[in-house]
Queue: 2 jobs
Job 1
Amino acid sequence: MSDDQLAPATLEHARALDAADPLSRFRERFAIPPRPGGDPVRYFCGNSLGLMPRGVPELLAEECEDWARLAVNGHYGARRPWFDYHTRFRDRGARLVGALPSEVCYQSTLTVNLHLLMVSFYRPEGSRRKIIGDTPAFPSDTYALASQIAFHGGDPENDLIQLRPREGEHDLREEDLLRAIDEHGDELALVLVSGVNYYTGQAFDLRTLARAAHDRGACFGVDAAHAAGNLALQLHDDDVDFAAWCSYKYGNAGPGAIAGSFVHERHGRRPELPRFAGWWGNDPATRFQMNEVQRFEPAEGADGWQLSNPPILSMAPLDASLAIFDEATMPALRERSVRLTGYLQERLDRLGDRVEVITPRDPERRGAQLSIRVKGDTRAVRDQLEEAGCVCDFRPPDVIRVAPTPLYNTFEDIHELTRVLGGEGAA
Ligand SMILES: *Cc1c(COP(=O)(O)O)cnc(C)c1O
C-alpha cells in the first residue's frame, strides 16, 4: 500500500476514530493519573499495572462499613456476603477467559496458583519428567518451574526445556515448539506456555499446542498473565488442562490483586487428583463439620483447589473491574484492541528505520502490546516520551513495551506517542 492510500496521520483523524467508537465511553470509568500540568498522562502500561476503576473506593468503603457494622455477622449479612464472596467471580471470570463457571476460581496470586496447580498437573513419573516452556520467560515462572522439578527430585538443568527464538529472530516459531514436543514426547510431563509472552507480545495457538501435548501424553498449562483481559481466550474449547493469571495487568484490579485459576472440567471431577488442600477447597456442605472425621472432600471444579476463606478487602477491586469487563464484553474489547494496535503498527511503519517492532505482525499472534526496538539514542527517546506525558515500559537495552488497552487508551494517545517516536517532540 502506498502512503497516499493510507488514512491521514493527523490528530483530527485520530480524534475522529475515537469519536466514532462506542467503546470509547469506558475510558471515563478509570482514574487516569495527571501529569504536572493537570492533563491526563497517555498511559501505555496497562500490561504492567492497569488503571483503577473509579468504582473501587466506594466498594472498598462499603466492605469496611459492613465490617464495622456487622463484624462476624458480615459473613452472611454483608451487602455482598463474605462466606461465598469468591463465587461472585465465577461467571464473570468464566466469560473473561472462555471457560465454564465451574472451571474458574479466584484466589491468592499468580505464582502461588501456578504452584498449586502444578502440584496436581506436574506429576513426573519414571522417565516422564520434562517441562517445555517458551522464552523469554518471566523470572517468576522459571523459578516456579525449576523449583517444582527440584521438589520432585529432578534436575532443572536437564528437565526444564525453555525454547528460544531462532538466531536472528525475535519470536519463537510455533513449529519449533511442536517439534520439541514431538521429540521429547516420551519424556514430557508438562508443556507450560505464556498465553501472550510478556516481553515480545507473541501469542500462541493454544488449541494446536494443547493437542500436540496431549497426543504425546503430557499436560498442557497456560500462564495467562498477559492474555487474560487482553485476548478473547477460549481455555475450555482449546482443551487447556490448567491456567493461571494475575488480575493487576489488563485486569485492572489493583497492585497485587487476587489472581484467577482455571482447571478444565474433566479434572474438576477427579477428587482423587493429588493437591494441596485447605478448608475452602472442601465441599461447602461438609466444610464446617470441624469436630467430625475431617476427611478432605474436594469441591467439584476449580473451587476444589481453593485453600482459604476469601480476602474481601483485596477482592473488592476485582468486583468493580470484572463488572466493567462484563459490560464491555471481551469479544468487543478484543475487536477494538485489534484496531487500536493495528493503528499503532501502521503509524510505526511510517517511521521507517527509527524503530523495529519485534512483536508478530499477524493480529492473531499477538494481543494489545507491541514491543518496539528503538534505534539510536534510547535515553533521549525515553526523555522525550516522558516529557510528552507518555507512560511506557522500557526494557534495557532498547525495547519499549507499549500496550494500548481497549478499555481506556485512545487513538489520540497513539497518535501522540508515534509523533514523539518520530522525533517531533512534545506538542
Ligand atoms: C506478571 C507476571 C508474573 C507475576 O507473578 P505474581 O505472582 O503475580 O507476582 C508472573 N509470570 C508472568 C508471565 C507475568 O507476566
Note: The first strand starts at residue 30 and ends at 31.
Job 2
Amino acid sequence: MENINWSTLPFGYFKTDYNVRCYYRNGKWGLIETSSSEYINMHMAATCLHYGQEAFEGMKAYRGKDGKIRLFRWEENAKRMGRSADGILMAKVPQELFYEMVVKAVKLNEKYIPPYGHGAALYIRPLLIGTGPQIGVKPAEEYMFMVFVGPVGPYFKEGFNPVTLQIVRDFDRAAPQGTGHIKVGGNYAGSLFAANRAKEEGFPAVLFLEAKEKKYIDEAGPANFFAIKNNSYITPKSDSILPSITNMSLMQLAEDMGMNVERRKVAVEELDGFEEAGACGTAAIISPIGKLVDRETGKEYVFSKDGKAGTKSTKLYNKLQAIQYGDEPDTHNWVTILD
Ligand SMILES: *Cc1c(COP(=O)(O)O)cnc(C)c1O
C-alpha cells in the first residue's frame, strides 16, 4: 500500500503510475495504449491548443466496506462526452471504448483507490482532444482520447459544511446558445477571471446568472445549483447549464424521499424564500450553500444560520454517498462493481 494520508488528501492533481490513451486516425479509433508518462507529445498546430477542441469528463471510483470498487453511472458520462464531441465536431468515443479505458485506468492504479472510510475516492478524468494540425478554423482530422486518475479528498476544504458563494453579474459563464450545455474547456477558461476574483474577495466559488436577462440562476462554476423549499427540490432549467449527473441523481432521490422535484427557471428574487441551498457535482457531491452575496447590490441571502447544512440536503447527501460507496442498496442500477 502506498504511504498516502487518505484523510488529508486535497482535491487536486496526484501522480499515479499509468494512464491509458487511444488515437483516432484515418477515420477510426486504434488500439488502447498504456503510458507511464504524464506528458503528451503533439503537433504544435493541434486544434485543441488553438481552437479549443477539447472536452473532458469527471467521475469517481469508490471503494466500499467490502473492498469492492464501484463506478457511478459511467454510461451517463460516456453519453455526455458523446454530446460534447458532437457539439464541437470532434470524433466520438464509442461507449464500449470509453468504459474499457476507464476500467483499465482504474485497475492499473488500484493501489491509489482510497480505502473505505476516509471520504476520499479515485477521481477519473477522461479527456478528448483534437490533435491533428489546422491553421484555418476547422475541426481536426486526428484525436486523442485518454483517461488518467488520481486519489482526491473533498473539493471544498469546508467539507460538508456550508460555504458562502458570490453572485456575479459582470461575467457570464456561457452564452445562451453557446456551449454551456457541454463539458468543454472553453467554458472554464471563460469562468476563470470571475472565479479568481471571487477567491481574492473571500468566496470559494461564484454563482452565475443566465446571461440573457440576468434574472434567473444558472449554475455555480463547476456545479449545478439546487434549493429546498416546502418539501420541494428546485433546480434551474436552462440551455446554458451543464446537465450534472449528480443533480440528475439527487432529483431521483428527492422524488424517492417523497419530495416534489421542480426543474424550472429559478428567479433571483426567489432566493429569499429558500430554506436550503446547495451546489452539486461529482467533485463535492453536495456543497451546502450557507449564504449567497450579490456582488453588485451587496444583498445577502442566508440559508444556514447555525453554520450547519440543512436536514434535507444532509439526507440527500448521505443517501447518495451510501449508494456510491455500496452501503445501501443500488435500487436504480447506478453502480457498476468492477471485478
Ligand atoms: C462537470 C460539471 C458539473 C457537475 O456535473 P456532474 O456530472 O455532477 O459531475 C456541473 N457544472 C459544470 C459546468 C460542469 O462542468
Note: The first helix runs from residue 47 to 50.
